[in-house]
Amino acid sequence: MQFRVDPGELWYGVKISVLIGAVFFIGARSVHEIVRYSEPASDEMVPVSELPPFVAFARGGGGEKTLAYAALDNGALILPSHEAVAARRDALIAAREDFIFADLSANKLSLYKSGVLVKTFVILGYGKEGTFFETPSGVYRVQSKEENHFSTIGHVWMPWSMHFFGNYFIHGWPTYPDGRAVPPGYSGGCIRLSTADAKELFSLSTGGIAVLTASEENTMSAAHNAQAQYFRRVAGGAQAAGQEPKLSAPSVLAVDFTTGQILFERDKDTARPIASLTKLMTALVAIETINRFKIITMSASAHAMPGDSAGLAVGESFQSQDYLYPLLLESSNDVAALYAEQVGGFVGIMNQKARGIGMERTHYADVSGLDPENTSSAVDIFRLLQFLNNHKKPIFDILGIRDYTRTSHNGGGVHQWHNVNWSSDDARFVAGKAGFIGAADYVMAGVWRMKFAEEGEQTVAIIILGSHDQMSDTNVLIDYLEKNFVYGTVLTHKDDLAAPAGTLRTGAVLYEAIPALNIR
User: Fold this and answer.
1) CA-to-CA distance for 199 and 478, rounded, in angstroms?
2) Which residues make Cβ contacts (< 8 Å) with residue 328, sequence separation at least 6?
3) Which residue has the higher pLDDT, 516 or 226?
4) The dihedral sign for the CA sequence 12, 77, 214, 219
5) Residue 485 included in any domain
6) What is the DSSP secondary structure assignment for residue 27, as one 8-state letter?
7) At 343, which CATH number?
8) Cα–Cα dist 505/513, whole Å
9) Most-buried pick from 263, 316, 464, 496 (CB within 10 A)?
């Protein structure tokens, strides 16, 4: 068994100093003149503050790029579902606004002027759902336009490009530097049109026009066996029916990971400090705003963060995506700080993303979880876990691997990072993240396989906040669930006339169907 969590210390002095420096930095930057159409490289970060800005790049006299800020009228929103974006589309139509609506489910991109549909174009490619490159649903704005943009991620030319968020563009059919067309298939996250359509859209669209992207509709829950349901033991067995498990944590939630059906809850909606569960959102924002192939060197300032460095040294370099492993497996605060150094307003984006996912009781104050003002509820953390599984599966999968080996790009040595979030010899464990600071006590968010019938297993998410021993609490809860719940398709024991409707009898034990209370 191998297990540990990052202890972390509170660092108010450092945080206040950084905050003051950031204020002066942003103030200094804001004096530059805004240029609407310029040349942002696809691997450059787009800074976003708590109030999402319209970002443009201005060239100084020496050719270097500086940043200018101006508030958007409506602000950018990262939304959780196709339905949420469609509702925003309808609101913009009613308000007679100009906007672009990209419906990824229908492979159609529509241009509206004054709320009236002007033209619809066929979408030929977009980021595959569940991958690092998934095109994020939301409401954005065209931040820059280029007639032919070179992507340093895909090393291709993208004609008639319009940049709308992070590493994401609307553009025509890309070509390699030698002139060959890129073959059909999913894109690297951009919305791909034919070159002729992209040129027409480019000419009809104004700078700063709103861009709405609606992801594929999630049918996972509907696809789940509609006939099967959960039954809870109400009589019989060695343990008294209805007796709750003895847990130290004040906030606990156990939910079927596929359907969102609640199996056990205790104070699930109260916001509490979440320690290193913060890093789940840090990873998500990093992968959506930073070119995942970008080589990043560990800085002295990031390395100075309290807590375990995961063996990283100042001056070592890795691709951005490689840093996800020490961040999530060994809970490296250094990596969290390093990611934040790449993107202005990183914490603001984290809060924006939380709102988009529907995490209504969540607030982030830093990227590592050292600050006790990083707070969330058990329900919100479940929503984040499910979002990662459905929309950024590679991040979710990292949470479940036992170890990962990588060599730094500049010869710093071979690193092997181990998953310290849960016991490595527990075959039930699917994925998860643990954490600890004094103000939060121990916290845990993960998914386990559980047997509720003689054959087959169900995956159940367990969120525990404020525990004195999160491993013990989790194991006690798993034991309670497996002993007190069954899952199946038989609604009534037909031969037992004394059993009330909606019950299931197995031997001397009577089970009762539980109400379908689902988290959406």
Assistant:
1) 57
2) 279, 280, 283, 395, 398, 399, 433
3) 516
4) positive
5) yes
6) H
7) 3.40.710.10
8) 11
9) 464
Q: Give residue 328's identity as a one-letter amino acid code.
A: L
**Cα gap 464→445, rounded to integer Å:** 6
Q: 417-440 pLDDT, tens per residue?
A: 999 999 989 999 999 999 999 999
* Dist. CA 277–CA 256, nearest whole Å: 20
Q: Which is higher by pLDDT, 124 or 26? A: 124
Residue 408 identity: S
Q: Report how far residue 364's alpha carbon sits from residue 386's, in angstroms, rounded to the nearest whole number.
A: 19
Give CA angle at 337 (3, 410), nearest 5°: 85
pTM of the model: 0.69
Tell me: do 117 and 161 sit in the same domain.
yes
Residue 486 backbone class (left: φ over 0; alpha: ψ -120 to 50; beta: rest): beta
Q: What is the largest CA-CA distance in the chain?
A: 88
Model confidence pLDDT, tens digit, residues 91-133 = 999 999 999 999 998 999 999 999 999 999 999 998 887 777 7
Kindly state the helix (H) or strand (E) to which residue 388 belongs, with its residue range.
helix 378-391
Distance CA 218, CA 209 (A): 27
Least confident segment among 13-27, 157-171, 247-261, 319-333: 13-27
Neighbours of 212 (CB within 10 A): 24
Written as one string, the DSSP assignment of 122-190 is E--B-BPTBSTTPPPPEEEE--EEEEEEEETTTTEEEEEEEEEETTEEEES--B-TTSPBPPSS-BSSS
3-state secondary structure of 46: coil
d(CA 290, CA 158) in angstroms, rounded, equals 19
Token pair in block for residue 298: 């560990």
The one-letter amino acid code at 280 reads L
Res 1 pLDDT > 80:
no
Query: Could you say which DSSP state residue 2 is in?
Result: -
Neighbours of 401 (CB within 10 A): 14
CA distance 444 to 464: 5
What total of structural domains would you count in the chain? 3
Q: Please state, in angstroms and rounded to a whole number, the distance separating the CA atoms of residues 319 and 328.
A: 15
Residue 243 DSSP class: P
Residues 198 and 88 in one domain: yes
From first CA to last CA, the distance across the chain in angstroms is 35
* Domain that includes residue 428, residue range: 221-271+424-513
Cβ count near 486 (within 10 Å): 19
- The domain boundary, picked from 214, 233, 263, lies at 214
Does some domain include residue 12? Answer: no
Element housing 110 (H / E): strand 108-113
Token digits of residue 111: 């241009």
**Per-residue model confidence (pLDDT) at position 242:** 56
| CA dist., res. 315 & res. 291, Å (int) | 20
Give the Cα-Cα-Cα angle 100, 46, 209 (nearest 5 degrees). Answer: 20
